[in-house]
């Protein structure tokens, strides 16, 4: 079943105006917070945005997030690098992988719930990071990692991608 969800998940750029419920948002955020992270440091926080005014502002400031003009929800993932600064240096610097895992968890949970998503990267693009930081009033020590548009699909692109044996090296 999980493989089917992975196979059918696609980036959706057109959404119906149907509201995403509080219960659905909670499930998406719970999925994100259950994601693995280096030494369980959980270097993230989330901003759930349903304000039409703010969704439109984000669509204006992010060059590839125009779908936020129709999406009823955006979850912004904010990286917290300082949570990985420890004396043993073990988890330091793994926040991009950790936030990526949280992002993928949201994408797959949304697909399992019948919702569409589009992952709009912010980090490491400086201009986009600055624009999103200013729009969402994110402190300097935090990093806007990505924006995820979420809502009821108003398009149904065919799945793409495939298993490519030539990209696998076997060591037995």
- Based on secondary structure, the structural category is alpha+beta
> How many strands?
4
C-alpha termini separation? 28 Å
Low-confidence stretches: none
Name the helix and strand elements from N-terminus to C-terminus, one letter apiece: HHEHEHEHE
Question: What amount of the residues lies in strands?
Answer: 15-25%
Nearest-angstrom radius of gyration?
Answer: 17 Å
Arithmetic mean pLDDT: 97
Q: Assembly state here?
A: single chain
Largest sheet: 4 strands, antiparallel
Q: Quick one: overall form?
A: globular
Biggest sheet, strands in spatial order? Answer: 1-2-4-3
**Total number of helical segments?**
5
- Helix-residue proportion: 25-40%
Can you put this structure into words, describing what you see?
This protein has a four-stranded antiparallel sheet with strand order 1-2-4-3, with helices on both faces. The chain has 172 residues and is of the alpha+beta class. 34% of the residues lie in helices and 16% in strands. The protein has five helices and four strands; from the N terminus they run H-H-E-H-E-H-E-H-E.
Give a short overview:
The chain is α+β, with helices and mostly antiparallel strands.
Layout of SSEs?
Elements: H1 2-8, H2 22-33, E1 44-49, H3 52-61, E2 73-79, H4 95-112, E3 116-121, H5 126-136, E4 143-151
Antiparallel strand pairs: 1-2, 2-4, 3-4
Helix pairs in contact: 2-4, 3-5
